[in-house]
Input
Amino acid sequence: MTPIIDLRSDTVTRPSAGMRAAMAEAPVGDDVFGDDPTVNMLEERVADLLGKEAAVYVPSGTMSNQLAVNIHTQPADELLCDVNCHIYNYEGGGPAILSGVTCRTLDGDFGILDLSQLEDKIRNPDDVHLVKTRLVCLENTHNRGGGRIYPIEKIEAISQWAWKNGLIMHLDGARLWNAIVATGIAAREWAKHFDTVSVCFSKGLGAPVGSALAGPKAAITKARRTRKLLGGGMRQAGVIAAGCLYALDHNIERLADDHRTAQILARAVADTPGMTLEPTDVDTNLVWVRIAPSLGSAKDIAARLKREGVLVHTAGAQKIRMCTHLDVSKPQAERAAETLRKVVVKPILV
Ligand SMILES: Cc1ncc(COP(=O)(O)O)c(C=O)c1O
Output
C-alpha cells in the first residue's frame, strides 16, 4: 500500500530513531524542584540561542504564549495583534479567560503589521472608560498568513515605537526556526526586538512535545509560577526535553528542505486552474490555497486528495493548507503535487 502523505501540519511528525534513543537515555530529575538536568540544559540552550537571560520549558506553544500574555498584563489590559494571529484565533480565548485581557485586532498583510497601523492605537491611560494598551504580539513566521516571514525592519520599527511608548513586545515564534533558516538572520537578531519569545520544538523541528518561553529572568520566574498554576509543572520532563535538544542539534538546517518541497506544491497550485496561492509567494513550509467554487468546496478537494493518499487541512469553505515537514520527502512532495493536479480534473464523486 502506498504510504499516506500527511500535509495537514508540521505537528504530525513522529520522533526518529535517533531522537527516540536520545530521549531514552536522557538523565532526568523532578523538574518542579528544578532537578531535571536535561530540562535545565534545554532552558539554558534556548535562552542562549535567543540572547535572553532565562527560559522555561512548557508543554505547548499555547501555554507559552498564554504565559507571556499573563505575566505581561493585568485584567482590563489590552493587547494589539494581527487579526489572523494564533494567540487570538486558536488559543481558546486564553487572553480573556486566563488574563482578563482584550485583543484589539488589526488587519495585517497576510499577518504582517506595519507600524503605521499601530501608531494611533494606544488608548489614553487617564480615561477611566478605557482598557489599558499594554502588549504587542507578533507572529513569525505567520501561520494563517501563509508561512510569511516578517521583514525584520518592520519588527524593529514596531519594537522601537512600542518600547518608547511603554508597551511590551511578545513574539509567537512557533516557527521562528523557519524564518531563521530562510533568511539567515540569527535567532537572537530576531529576538532582540522582543521582551519575550515563544518557540516550539513540536512543529518543523519534529520533537514530540514542548515549547519554551524566553525573556528576562524576573519575567521567566513569574512564568514558572503561572505554569505551575495552570498544571504545566512537569516532573521527569527530561525524557521529552531530550527530544527538543536533539531537534535543535539535527533538525534546524534541514528546514530548508521543507521550504524546497513547499515550492514543489506551490508550483502545482500555481499551474492548476481554479486554485490560487494565498499569498502568491510561499516563503517557508506552509502553502495556503484558495479553491474556486467551480472545483467544489475545500472539503470536497480534501476528500478527493484523501482517497489518493494525500491529507490536507481545510480552513473555511474554500481554503486548504498544505504543510511540508521532515516526514515529507521530495518524491512524496512530487507525488502530492501530481495528485493535486489530477484531482481537479477528475469528476466529482463525493
Ligand atoms: C503560530 C503558532 N503559534 C502557536 C501555536 C500553538 O502551539 P501548540 O499546538 O503547541 O499549542 C501554533 C500551533 O500550530 C502555531 O501555529
